[in-house]
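Before relying on records like the one below, remember that each one covers exactly one chain. Contacts with other chains, cofactors or solvent are not represented anywhere in the record.
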Amino acid sequence: MQTRRLPMTPLRQRMLEDMQLRNYSPLTMHCYLRCVAEFARHFGTSPAHLGPEQVRTYQLFLLQDKQASWTSVVQTVCALRFFYRITLGRPEILEYIASPQRPFTLPIILSPAEVATLLTTPRNLKQRAILTTLSAAGLRVSELCQLQVTDIDSARMVLRVRQGKGQHDRSVMLSPKLLPLLRHYWQQHKPRPWLFPGTPGTRPITARMVHRICRDAGQAAHLPKAIHPHLLRHSFATHLLEAGVDLRRIQLLLGHRSLRTTSRYLHVTPHALHATPSPLDALPLDESL
């Protein structure tokens, strides 16, 4: 993914160092720097000269004019909170930075039949290996991109996830059906060190490319749903829940910090719905009514 490099001003350098000291991930640092730079660019001046009124005006611009997604708005809020609290040392401004309430939406999932159709559609071996790994392990797209060949532990049948969200390592299951596919892929392509290298081969594949692979595979399979990496992660969690795997174990496999995040899958699994009788079932009604 090609991104425009912004000039490294002293203030930008200080914010970068503040995040490095707190061990923020490269993706988070890039995102926060971009959000603050766009905030400053909107007003045509250094963000050090901007205060609560400009923050409020910019948030309204994102919501009303730009119609930015909830995720984009929250990223901007987090970036500005860090910038004012840590880099500028002005925590009093935080109370003026409104935090939007997250809308509750049910995740869309694929049925097992749709997953099978998706995984058998691509003829390209690398693309099939990428889609199957996402589906079999429930990885985030950033975690898939950072997989190395040495992260495959065939003796213990696990995949090692390095520094996932929140800078945490974890292990996930290595499916017995995934392992032969990865071995076949490795024999043909000999990737090293990245399991799925990008361009050039010394760098890992980009998230944008993985999104494109998912989209193209979904279109080729004539699936009615828009396919993206997180949809495969949602499907992974929901299918585990339907198979009777407890919520705590699913939380650990997904790398969720809170069980509350994992519990949203209870709202989409038919298993949870069918296991709960309606109050109507206990009423002494004539079944012909």
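Residues 22 and 162 are 18 Å apart (CA to CA).
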